[in-house]
Specification:
Elements lengths: L1 E5 L2 H18 L4 E4 L6 H14 L7 E4 L1 E3 L10 H8 L11 E2 L8 H14 L5 E4 L21 E4 L2 H7 L12 E4 L2 H5 L3 E6 L5 H9 L17 E6 L21
Parallel strand pairs: 1-10, 2-3, 2-6, 3-5, 6-9, 9-10
Antiparallel strand pairs: 4-8, 7-8
Helix pairs in contact: 1-2
The chain binds 2-amino-2-deoxy-6-O-phosphono-alpha-D-glucopyranose.
Length: about 260
């Protein structure tokens, strides 16, 4: 695991974007796993800028999103389909046929989840998976207690997660109760992981994920078992860490 601490959210986002762009230039048809939430917004903004100013080319990239709320149509402004379109897809040159976001309106959710796993495998697996982290240590919608070997499936959201995400909805009752999410095992199969976290509110979760015991009670802690996991944090999210960390992912021998 390589932990990179940057002074600000902006610097963290730009550094993470440089890593994604590096991988994309090396493999133009890379399979990119994407995350929603406020954390990766700066990364997406910088990748959009690189596309616009530097010609970063997404035309051959395939994407797979981590998760989606059950019951929200893609047109709902809180669906992850909508989020991805508005905050990333509409401003880059991805081929729409290469975009995959779980179908929260699927009639047969189990069949959809099996298809999603198959589709990832048909693409040769995820090259790089972007991750945020929930305040309770969740990754995607794998809540505490999730099997560390789990695959794409439907999950019940915890009260804490629904409260955390209520800020995006008019009332907290409107926050969906279920989501389709890649499993922890699905995420761990990605060749590289890029976990991002900022703000002091994430400091405990980051500490547990990076320096705590590996436990299903903090699903993000499983990244300690990944051979190529990058953790990008801003100074605020790093306040509880006690190890000596890096400020760049380049020219470092992978730890
Ligand atoms: C949601 C998403 C996660 C995300 C988390 C943190 O629960 N399913 O993938 O990491 O929110 O969101 P934020 O980045 O807004 O703190």
């Amino acid at each position: 695991m390589l932990v990179i601490v940057k002074e600000t959210y902006d610097a963290m986002s730009k550094e993470a974007a440089r890593l994604v762009a590096d991988r994309l230039r090396k493999k133009p048809n890379m399979v990119l796993g994407l995350a929603t939430g406020s954390t990766p917004l700066g990364l997406y903004k910088e990748l959009i800028r690189m596309h616009r100013d530097e010609g970063l080319d997404f035309s051959k990239v395939s994407t797979f999103n981590l998760d989606e709320y059950v019951g929200l149509p893609p047109t709902h402004d809180q669906s992850y389909h909508y989020f991805m379109r508005e905050n990333f897809f509409k401003d880059i040159n991805l081929d729409v046929r290469h975009i995959h976001v779980p179908q929260g309106m699927a009639k047969d959710i189990d069949a959809f989840c099996a298809w999603y796993e198959k589709r990832i495998a048909e693409h040769g697996g995820l090259d790089l998976q972007v991750l945020g982290i929930g305040g309770n240590g969740h990754i995607a919608f794998n809540e505490p207690g999730s099997s560390l070997g789990s695959r794409t499936r439907i999950k019940t959201l915890t009260g804490t997660t629904r409260m955390d995400n209520a800020r995006f909805f008019k009332t907290k009752e409107e926050v969906p109760r279920y989501a389709i999410t890649m499993g922890v095992g699905t995420i761990m199969d990605a060749k590289e992981l890029l976990l991002l976290a900022n703000k002091t509110g994430k400091a405990d979760a980051v500490k547990a994920a990076v320096e705590g015991p590996i436990t299903a009670m903090c699903p993000a802690s499983i990244i300690q078992m990944h051979a190529k996991a990058f953790v990008f944090v801003d100074r605020d999210a790093a306040t509880k860490l006690t190890g000596n960390y890096n400020d760049s992912w380049e020219s470092k021998i992978f730890q």
